[in-house]
Amino acid sequence: MERKRTLLKSTIGLGLPVLLLAAACGDDSQTSSASSPVNSSTPGTPAAPDTTGPTSSSSDTAASPPDTAGEAVIDPGDGGNYEPNVDPAAFVATIDNPYLPLSVGSRWVYEGRDEEGTERVEVVVTDKRKQVMGITATVVRDTVHIGGELVEDTYDWFAQDRDGNVWYLGETVKNYENGKLADTDGSWEAGVDGALPGIVMPAQPAEGMAYRQEYYEGEAEDMFEIKTVGGSQDVPAGSFDDVITTTDWNPLDPKVIEEKQYAPGVGLIYETKVAGGEGLVELIEFSPPS
Q1: Which of 121, 157, 138, 124 is nearest to 20 (CA)?
Q2: Does residue 39 lie within any of the structural domains?
Q3: 10 Å Cβ neighbour count for 36?
Q4: In this structure, is residue 8 part of a structural domain?
Q5: How far apart are CA 233 and CA 237, in angstroms?
Q6: How many Cα atoms sit within 13 Å of 14 on the Cβ side?
Q7: Rounded CA gap, 53 and 117, in Å?
Q8: pLDDT tens across 257-289, in order?
Q9: Contacts of 60 (CB under 8 A, 6+ apart)
Q10: What is the distance between the terminal CA atoms of the chain, rounded to a whole angstrom?
Q11: CA dist 219 to 21, 35, 238, 267, 287, Å?
């Protein structure tokens, strides 16, 4: 079964992307209180990204399949030496980035279609917290159903730094087959076994910015690049303006390239596969916290 994720990570394919990532650790219920300044930046640090962003490939290149399996579609600008300087004191309790707001009680429902069929993904921001690398992360639950049957149940861990960048810290994944737990493939945790966190949404998105969303060598290496800022998109959940479009790519699956769209105040609204197959995901319902 191909595992992916919705709110930020790949969502197209059997077992639609699920918002959650992390090693099989329990969910801590502590609340976050960090609010100290962020450290100065190196590629991937908690400091707010420069508005020019790391060096990246052009959007034209990102929208086309690579000529060879070894050709990079996205360059995160770290020269292959990714060493984020993560300071727990630089993180805050609330995730209120306009393009990835994760307030407790928020709920998103997506429908995905590809060569394999139709999937329904439900994402909910829980009131649970998880300690990762000394950071108090927000726990987001992502469940995937195919034909009414649960195929994936994931808990993702996110945190926002003081400058407004949203970081991805890991997930616990449970994959099901015929109603029974099949495996926990895809689980990882930042700070464990060499895994490192990444930025999934910068504080001030600008065209050309490129980042690693996660880094667990050989297991989780998703990247994204801001392709455009200021577009519009219609989905079953409504019509949205001021949309940003990203190109998403994983060197572990180099022939597959996806594009995602995020709307302010909502988050991910649309995703389509532009190379390496066919498929799309659309937001069909969004419920902000009551």
Answers
A1: 157
A2: no
A3: 12
A4: no
A5: 11
A6: 7
A7: 37
A8: 999 999 999 999 999 999 999 899 999 999 999
A9: none
A10: 36
A11: 12, 32, 35, 25, 33
pTM: 0.79
Closest CA to 189 of 200, 177, 210, 173: 173
**Distance separating alpha carbons of residues 87 and 38, to the nearest angstrom:** 7
Instruction: Name the H helices within the chain.
Output: 59-62
Give Dmax over CA atoms of the chain in angstroms: 49
Residue spans of beta strands (DSSP E) within the chain: 91-92, 107-114, 117-132, 135-146, 149-161, 166-177, 180-183, 188-189, 196-201, 210-212, 214-215, 223-235, 238-249, 257-263, 267-275, 279-287
Count of CB atoms within 10 A of residue 269's CB? Answer: 25
Is residue 11 in a domain? no
Domain of residue 84: give its range: 59-287
Contact between 94 and 165 under an 8 Å Cβ cutoff? The reply is no
Contact between 162 and 35 under an 8 Å Cβ cutoff? The reply is yes
The CATH number that applies at residue 144 is 2.40.360
Instruction: Name the 3-class secondary structure at 194.
Output: coil
Sign of the alpha-carbon torsion through 213, 151, 97, 195: negative
Structure tokens, 49: 């990204």
The domain tally of the chain equals 1
Q: Is residue 40 part of a domain?
A: no
The C-alpha atoms of residue 227 and residue 90 are separated, in whole angstroms, by 28
Which pair of tokens denotes residue 215?
């880094």
180-224, pLDDT tens digit by residue? 999 999 999 999 999 999 999 999 999 999 999 999 999 999 999
Closest CA to 186 of 153, 210, 137: 153
Q: Which of 168, 254, 242 is nearest to 211 (CA)?
A: 168
